[in-house]
Structure formats: C-alpha cells, structure tokens
Protein 1
Amino acid sequence: MANKDLVDLVYDLVRKVPVGSVTTYGLIANAVGLKSSARLIGYIMNHAHDAYPSVPAHRVVNRNGLLTGKHHFKKSSMQTLLEAEGHVIVNDQIQDFKNKLWDPMSLLE
DNA sequence: CTGTTGACTGCTG
DNA sequence: TCAGCAGCCAACA
C-alpha cells in the first residue's frame, strides 16, 4: 500500500462519507493530518471535479453547515443533491447540521 | 524560484 | 454580537 498523495487521500475520505451524513473541511483536514489547513481542502475539492471516481463534494460543507461551495457545482445544485439524500437545506444552510455531521476520524480510529 | 490565490477556521477587538 | 485579521498548505503563473 503505497502512500497516496494528500489530494487522493482527501478524495478517498470524502467518498467514504455515508449517505445522509455530511462532514466539514476542518474535520477532513484534521483527518489527513493538516489540522489547520481547511483551505487546502477547499482547493482540493475544486479539483475534485476531475477526480475519478467522482467525489461527493456536496457532502462537504464549512463548519457552519453552510453550502459555501455550491457556486462551484455546474451541473446540479449542491442543495438539490443534499436534499436528495434526505438533508434539509434552508437559506443555504443544512438544518440539524450537528446531528448529521460525520467525523472522518471515526473511520481512521 | 517567488508571489498570489483559494469550496476555511479561530482568535481578537 | 458582529467585523476584521492572521494562519495554514498546495497548485498555478
């Protein structure tokens, strides 16, 4: 098992986010060891469109549960995708966000 | 090689 | 409570 690039590691982690749950940039950054570099996650997710298999970037939001990256979804709206998975979006924000939040560290443990 | 940018977060005033 | 600033790391010009 060769060491993957940081980008691939983030992709793989996001793909493992369970349906009906969401995670945050900060938690992902922490899970890959970057801890304070949530911005990198955002930058990496920008490239996620070119990643294969496709990365469910719509399950990744900022720590407030706000759909900060929805503007980057060209085909389908981020909100639509989340609602299709059972999430409730109001004012670009996930309702009951804390209850739906999934910590990637729990997978690594 | 150097500087800028970015789907963020946390602290400080 | 709200607004502003600094920090973090990688990719691109």
Note: The mean pLDDT of chain A is 91.
Protein 2
Amino acid sequence: MARPQQTDVAVLGALSIEPMSGYALREAVTSVLGHFWHESYGQIYPALKRLEADGLIERQTGTRGNSSVFSLTTAGADRLDQLLAEPMTVDRPRNPLMLRLFFGRRLGPDVCQELINEARQQATAQLAMFEAIRAEMATEPQYAADRPYWLLTVSAGEHTARATLAWADNCEATLATLSRLH
Amino acid sequence: MARPQQTDVAVLGALSIEPMSGYALREAVTSVLGHFWHESYGQIYPALKRLEADGLIERQTGTRGNSSVFSLTTAGADRLDQLLAEPMTVDRPRNPLMLRLFFGRRLGPDVCQELINEARQQATAQLAMFEAIRAEMATEPQYAADRPYWLLTVSAGEHTARATLAWADNCEATLATLSRLH
DNA sequence: GGGCACATGTAAGCTGTTACATGATTAA
DNA sequence: TTAATCATGTAACAGCTTACATGTGCCC
C-alpha cells in the first residue's frame, strides 16, 4: 500500500537540521514542531532502526554510555527530498470540540460557553508561545537559511490562534442570547 | 484504558437528530460533519452492532430489502449525554503542509508557494461550501433548536478558512523575496 | 545516596483504513 | 438490461499509544 511514511519525513527532516539522539529528536519534535506535529517514542525508535538498516541514517556513539547520535547519510538526504516532494496525505479531521458543539443543544449554552472558554485560553497561551519562539529565533543566527520557512509555520499558528479568539468572541454573543432564553 | 469512544459520540449524536441507516449515517457524517469529523464504514458498522448489543440503539427494518434504520433508545440518549460531558481527548496535531513548509528550504520557495496556493484554493472552496450550508439551513425550519449550535461550527470553519487566506497572502510576500534571491 | 534528566528500546493492544464480497432497488 | 446508488458487512493490515523494562551520568 505504501502510504507515505510521515514519521520518516519528521525524523529525516529533524536530522537534516542537526544530528542528535532519539531522545533529543523526540524533544525537538515536541518543542519545535509541537504546534503542528507529534511523534511518540514508540514511533521514533523503530523508525530510527529501520532508517539505519536502510542506510538513510548513520549512528555514532554519543557522549554517554549507551547513547547514540544519528545523522543523515547522502542517501538519507535524497530520500528526504523525495518524500517532501510526494503529494501530501489528505488529513481526515477529527475535532472533538466541534463535535460537542454540533450536539451542543444537549449540553446547553452554558456548558458550550465553558468549552469555548477553554479553547480561548489555549489560543491565548499559543500566541504567547509563538511570541517566545519568535524571540528565541532572533537570537540564533546559525539557522538563518531555514528561519524564513520556520516563520511560515509560526505565522500559520498565529493566524489560526487569532481566528480562534475572534470566533470565540462571536460565539459568546450567540450563546449569551440562548442562555437568557434558557 | 477506556479512551472515550469518539465514534460512539458521532453515531449516537447523528441518530439523536434523526433515525437512519448505516449508509445514511456515513453520508450524513461526511456531508454535514465533514469539515471537522470523519468516519469510515469499517468504524460505523461495527459501532452500530456494538451499540445495538448494548441496548443503546434499536434496529427497525427499513424500506429496502436488507436495510435497517437505527434509532436511539432512552439508554442511548443517556449515554450520549454522558459521553458529551466527558473531557475531550487532546488532539495530537499532524499537519503535513506545515511539516513540508518547516523543511521548505529543501523544497525551495517556488514549490512552497505552490503548496500554499493549494491551501488557498481549498480554503476558498470551503468558504463557498459554508455559504451553501448556511443557505440550506435557512430553508429547513425543522431543526430550529439545533441550528444555533450547528452555526457555531460553521462559523469556526469560516474563521479558520479566512485565517488561511490571510496567512497565504502573508506568505506570498515572504516567498517572493526568497525566490528573487534564488 | 537519592532524585532527576538523559537515554534506548519492546510488547500489547487499540484505532482506523482499505479492499473485498455481496446483494437490492431504481432510473435510464 | 445495465449502470448507478443504496446497503451491509468482514478481514487484513497499518499506524500509533501506552506501559513497561532497563540503564547511565550528573548534581545536590
């Protein structure tokens, strides 16, 4: 069937920025790609094993006893470019907040308002996080060539978060009316 | 472990609006919840079987030979309310477009621009779809009590789509500059 | 010596998709 | 009659999470 190996893109991509251990890879994916991507250890370690067996990455012994540092091989870089150029898999959305709001009549306007308030708080927290990411990037001159692309994803996150806040404001008025009619 | 059964929420929820067959259920989920939810036959039919065995839904013989119409039982309605009130599962984001743009340096500015143009077209198509949904809802007085909640989800989709368009405009300027430096 | 962060990996099991198999009804 | 749509279901498999098992090195 060969669905594009999305995990491979993330792993090879991260190692293309700089060599690191599986643990650091997970850290990097969580903290840097966290707002649009996710990988668990159960995905990462088998992926590293497979990619190593395929000659796409190389393992060097790290500074600690049992630790390894993985880096891209030439074949790995080619494979990454090939994967990046493949058509993207359609994302099948599953938004549990929307599912609840759609059946919101059963929950009532006040519970719906609480759910939306949660979403608002998350969006606010995200905007603060993006602010911090921008500040941090400005202090790291070594990634200058990648930075403009990274900022595209930060900007996307900011636009989405601000859209959530605007939407939440809209909802508030509607739900207040419904609540008054109780 | 008992992760909340999200499929059950969608199935019970849909049947709470009106009784229907498994096939119609799939249709309804795809067309009505499509912009924020998804279910496949491989999920729906086993779920219907299980929910029937648990006495949460009832099966009546439909108009066609082998067809069934499912409707909520009282226990099913209770279960739905219970599931809706449960905390939402955290969504683990996986946005293949952002993953590609993050490593966009390897693709180059022109390919990135193409990817963003695709996203823009999708957002435009979505806005047209939401327009159509609003028009259709206005002609269906029987769902008046649910409509305000449904419109919350439509509004969310519209805000997100407009945010995508604004973001795409932003990106275009950045990428045009990068392209000129080639 | 104890706790924490770093580090690697596996196994069980659930979720969800895809492809397949089958058949009824309706409209052209 | 034949194609499209309606309709039900299963089996194989891919993807992913969680929990577990194990160990190192550093700092207090």
Note: The two ends of chain A are 52 Å apart (CA to CA).
Protein 3
Amino acid sequence: MKNYWLLKSEPDVYSIDDLARERISLWDGVRNYQARNFLKAMSVGDLAFFYHSNTTHKGIVGLMEAIEVLVVDPTQFDPGSDYYDRKATVESPRWHTVRFQFVSKFTDIITLADLQYLFSGEEFPLVRRGNRLSVMPVSTAIVAELQRRYSLSGVV
DNA sequence: GCCAACGTTGGC
DNA sequence: GCCAACGTTGGC
C-alpha cells in the first residue's frame, strides 16, 4: 500500500529545482512533533508532493519518492546548525526523517488558488486557514482528483 | 508589513 | 498541570 504525502518547503531555502539537481535529499530540519510523526509513518516507496510555500508562486511543483525511512536527523546534534536540539542525544535521538529521491517536476504548478478552489479544509489540511503543518498525508481521493485534472508525471 | 493560528517555554 | 508570553509559519 503506497501512501501519499505533501511536504512544504520555502523555495528560497530548498526548491524542486534543487532536488532535481541533487536527485536525492535528506529532509532534515523538521522540528514539529506532528510533522515528525508523519515522517516516521512513511514507508519506502511512498510518494510525496513537493509544495512551495511562502513565495509568490505557491503550490505543488513536483513529486518525490521516499527511499530511506527512520533516518536520524544529524542536524539535531550539530551545535552550529539552526536545527540543533540540545536535548537530543545520539543514544536517544528526537528527530527522525526521510531520504527522498526526485521523481518529477510538474510542467505546470498546481497553485494554492487551484487547490483552495478544488478542496475544502476538511478534505485537505493544506488549504485550511492558518495551517502551518509542513508534512501531511494526502488522501487517495485527493490524489485521484488531482490526477483527473492534471497530468501528474510520476503518479501511479 | 500584518496578523491568524498555532506550538513551545517557563513561571507558578 | 495551568496558562501567559513568546516565537514561528505562511497566507495575504
């Protein structure tokens, strides 16, 4: 059973083009427990929509695949990192994450405005007002609807 | 730049 | 354990 997710990133920090270039990326720096718990629930082979947040062109821009799960986020141990967590220890790390591989960049961005038009906040937490969650599941109903309306290269 | 909607922290 | 103050995300 393949699950679908959506992960937000500010393109100024890390964009779909960065992932397209690097091909593989460790999704480090998540410091929210709900988001982390979703990361921990991912399985190898799961697909994740890549969402550009906090930018002029907000929306889903591509797709990536989980290739390694339950990876200990190394930035939690690095005092020089923005994501350093002094309460985390190597013996009992707090933050686990996922390594992703680039799948596709969509020809056309699925804009936030489109998503707001298509889905209610009930259906899709992404479009819920004030929602800040950076990692969330995407229901199969939403995936099907997106597939019906857009050509989503890489979505099966 | 504003501010809604949280999540976290720390005093008690 | 409560909750006020503070910090952050992210749309607008």
Note: Residues 32-34, 129-133 of chain A lie near DNA strand B (CB under 10 Å from a C1').
